[in-house]
Amino acid sequence: MAVRERSSIQGADTRFLDPAVLSRINGLDLLARTVVDGFLQGLHRSPHLGMSLDFAEHREYMPGDDIRRIDWKLYGRTDRFYVKLFEAETSANFMVALDISKSMNFGTHTITKLDYARYLAASLSYFSQKQRDRVGLATFDHEIVEYVPPSTRHLQRILHALARAEPGRPGVLRDPLMRLGDNLYHRGIILVLSDFYEEPEQVLDSIRHLRARGHDVIVFHLLDPAELEFPFESAASFRDMESETMIPIVPDELVDEYRALIGQHTEELARLFTGSRIDYTVLDTSKPLDHALFRYLSSREKMARVR
Amino acid sequence: MGLLAPLFLLGLVGLVVPIVVHLTEKQRRQVVDFPSLMFLRKIPFRSSRRKKIHHWALLSIRALALVLLVAAFSRPFFENDVVGIGSTLGPREVVVVLDRSYSMGYGDRWERAKTQAREVFEGLEASDRASLVFMSRGAEALLRATSDRDRLLAALDEASLSADGTLYGPALKLAQTILEESEYPNREAVIISDFQRTGWKGDEGVTFPPGTVVTPVMISDEATPNATVASVTLRRDFFSGQERMTAVARVVHRQGEAPVERTIVLELDGQEIQTLTVLLDPTGSATVTFEPFTLSNLYTRGSIRLDPDALPQDDELHFVLSPGRAMRTLVLEGTSPRPDVSLYLQTSLEISEEASFQVDVRRSSSLSAADLEATDVVVLNDIRFPQGATADRLRGFVEGGGGLLLILGERSAWQTGLEEILPGRFGPARDHTRGAARLGYLDYTHPVFELFAGPRGGDFTRARFFRSRDMEVGPEGRVLARFDDGSVALAERRLGEGHVLVWTSTMDAFWNDLAVQPVFLPFIHQMIRHLSGYRERVPWFTAGQVLDLADPAGMVFVADRESELAPDVDQVALTPGGGSVTLPATDGPRFLELKEQGFYEVRPPGTNPDRPFTVAVNVDVTESELETMDPAELAAAVAPRETGVQLGIGGETLSAEMQARNQERRQSLWRFLMVAALVLLLTETAISNWISRAATMRFEDGRSYVPSNT
């Protein structure tokens, strides 16, 4: 199933998922709808995919009701037409934990990492809303900056909070994520969006307790292509966006070592998260959002099967 | 090509700026914001070669732009109009000004100068014309505007150095005239010289015609040490009744690098008298005093020679000496004079280092013709003026060139007829009752008093005059001194060839105390010298001077025997080089041009007198100062001006507007340089930005990114 979906998404029109195109859309609401609808359209699947199949109650057939919903077994027993009403899946909480630390304000392409994360958060919140999930949002740097509790009616608040999220301070994962875990009483899905500039063990330590509390955790590691490739050529002073410290760098001399180090970092994170049953994905912010969406859906489906 | 503001060339030091920017500033100023230095810090620090130039083209463009900017601000200009007037097409009018002053004899300068001139002549086209102008203190156009190259080269081969100094003005003026007279469109002046500073006055007023290309050719040497016999002082004195001369030579050494020891020789009539050694500082002078020698012959030729150096012309100095002639003074004090009336006068004339006065004091009032024949000056000291035949003889004596000094005293008395001889009428003796009179006015322009004109030249006001005779000076007379009450103290009258002086007080210590004042002795000497017509003989002339042998006023300075140069006798002058100049008898002037260094002999043709009239000629020692000037300075001074109305190619007048345009065109190079610099700077900006964008970040997929710079 997953393989088939992947092949179908690769053939889909990803024009509306390109960050460069999305950056020209004003309003996260419109953007989210564009992304999700375009994405779902590309999947050639029912727009109601994911709708809960749990039976809720019967009621008498009323003219205009879909005859496919008539419960024929009950008709056989009672000789009366009843239609089945399905209970929407409203029990799942979908919480987005968005890192808005200063380092997220980096971008060498059209958009920054934070923009990319903003689009993802908006899109997936919209998508979850359509799935009848309760959606919530927590933006954080070294503390929680804004918290929107999960609710089926909080999508607009989330989009508004995303729109006004401004990076400005250095970030730390542990404290805000601990506090977030303490605030979430119901189990749900937590999507963590960050660039994870901490040691892998510290990152895992910060996120692991969410998993321990029974949440399904999906981690998207956002990295700009410049952070992955380190394509600088001219010698310059490199300034840490969070600590403001500067060191002179001759890129030619250390590009290979840098690439090796960032590779080791992501591999170590993947290893640690996998061992903790946390879904981890590295996202290149120059790439379309479909990969992220697909990863989310597959993770969601996997989680549903496990449940 | 010249520069209006050459100091701006110092801006070339700024060439280091692009290199420094290239190596350091660029890295220092570029700051890249990066999300985290977490991984970069983990990489061990390694020093890298920052002093490495990555973009040679960029550096070259920056440096070239700076050079062009500096050149533009230096305001280059073409010294000669390369377009328009100074077209190089067509025949040329070339004037070669060749310096042949004796300083060109330093080393091989003369041969080098002739080689340069030869190259100019050999480079002439058939249609070209050339002139050869020799430059010394005067100018001589040997060949003028000729196309005959062979004649030019032959004249050059025949040319020889002169003994003259350098003066740029006449030769350049002559060259200017030749060029102005030429109808050729292309005019050139080639000035071949050692460009001595001494010959340039700066106000020569020479301006070559428009379009003239001035080419100075410097003939010089790196070091020019040179010793010169700068001057000789010849001092006369008498010892044991013989006249002796002492020669003191001053030797100057210039531009030497170390002290040198030179031999210096005194020669008389070709005989070496004494040889000395003189030690000369690298730059300085020394005085050499030779032993006194006895002078007994007329026109004795003397020379002082240094052993020759690179410039031998100034290593010798010639002079001509003749025995001195004492000024014979006859003092008449009457038959019964007051005691010691002539004591001070006689004593003062006998006290003379040069022993040039011969005094004869007589207690008489009579004068024979023989007395006057053997006398230069007659002094009538407080006696009545002679009468009758004596008076006539005395008058004739004065008119023939003799001198008469009349000293008025108690016994002096006015008599009829004296107004024909004396400068004025004198009256009776008068006491200065309101205190002693003092000399209040002296005519310092007169030869008697000019010796005292200088500061501390003698104080006549200290002398007190208690008595004197009043005198009314007539129109023929001239007052030379007055007392402070305005009365006449000394008056003069010119009578024929001689002079009469009247002193209205006595020359003893009776009427005044002048005789005991320090000024008394030189005052008496000056009066007797003046009255005797004494002239100091000139021991030598300077090359280039002209001597008029028919001018008695001038000849008294050189000749000792007046008769031998009588204007009615033909003369011939033998030059130092062995040539001869005929000086035929004439009523007019008889000029002898003293061109060569050495001795000129003048004698009647066909005769061989023992001691002919001789004059010594020396080079001008200022020429031996070999300091040079900048040839460009001279070239700029004589180069065509761009002001006023000038003649164009075809003789048409160029308007002031055209001249201004021409001048502007010659100086407009800076605009092109500025535009070129700006274009280069724009190119540099574009390339720099391109490199910055393209090279700062380049992704594997070909996209680029420019980090924010602060």
Q: What oligomeric state is this?
A: heterodimer
- Widest sheet, order of strands of chain A: 5-4-3-6-7-10
Count of individual domains of chain B: 5
- Average pLDDT of chain A, rounded to a whole number, is 79
Characterise this structure.
- The complex is a heterodimer of chains A (307) and B (710).
- Chain A is of the alpha/beta class and 307 residues long.
- Chain A is built from 11 helices and 10 strands.
- Chain A has 2 domains: 262 residues, 3-Layer(aba) Sandwich (Rossmann fold), CATH 3.40.50.410; 32 residues, no CATH class.
- In chain A, helix 5 links the parallel strand 3 and strand 4.
- In chain A, helix 3 packs across helix 5, helix 5 runs antiparallel to helix 6 and helix 7 packs parallel to helix 8.
- Chain A is elongated.
- In chain A, 42% of the residues are buried.
- The N terminus of chain A is likely disordered.
- Chain B has 5 domains: 105 residues, no CATH class; 149 residues, Rossmann fold, CATH 3.40.50; 84 residues, Sandwich (Immunoglobulin-like), CATH 2.60.40; 170 residues, 3-Layer(aba) Sandwich (Rossmann fold), CATH 3.40.50; 75 residues, no CATH class.
- Chain B is an alpha+beta fold.
- Chain B has 14 helices and 35 strands.
- The longest helix of chain B has 28 residues.
- In chain B, 23% of the residues lie in helices and 29% in strands.
- At the A-B interface, helix 9, strand 8, strand 9 and helix 10 of A face helix 1, strand 2, helix 2 and helix 14 of B.
